[in-house]
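Quick one:
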Amino acid sequence: MTLSLIHVQPATGMAAALTATGGVAVGGYVHHAWRGLGACATQGLATNPWYPDDIRDALARGRTARQALDQVTSRDDGATRRQCLVMDAGGQAAMHSGEANLPEVDAELRPTVAAAGNMLASGQVVATLLQRFLSLTCDNPDAAWARTAAPRYRDGYESRLLETLIDALDAALKAGGDRRGVRSAALRIESFDAAPIDLRVDWDERPVEALRSLAERVRAPDFAEFLASLPRH
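Output:
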């Protein structure tokens, strides 16, 4: 199983990605976020780690998420074993789930935020991940979930995005998560206003707790001061 969420804020260029899996070192293979361009998660029965380079290049050349995704899957003889989620700078998402992926396979796409997973304990896992994210960030979470309106984010929500991503993952895993159990989790946030945050738990019996502990260290005054001192470009 792999479970992912990607989020792009077109107004600021911020991009973020969150992933968890039952295998080792999910952060090194699955999710990618590029400020001003978009984000992707490449996962499935057999992850293709070469998708992100071509996706990023396509997005940089102005392609939409759908165009970038179609480009990489059309060249891949193993596309039936892939699951890939892409979001462009405008916040539009595209999804590919090959038929060889193991159930439960699910995805929820909304403007500016999307989630997907495979080999899940139930179809509720992806829904919980996205619903929790919307409830923590939006003034209109119910309408955004129901697709009657685009997500309307609260002022300043990006300042708490690190904690929000972890809380959303925690809720999803409590809803069932990976039917094998979850052993690694990671997240990345890129913006034009701060240095990137890239946290990875490569193997742990309680990866959410480990990720939360890392986040607390990032927020500690000494490291927060260090991050603030880094160049933004």
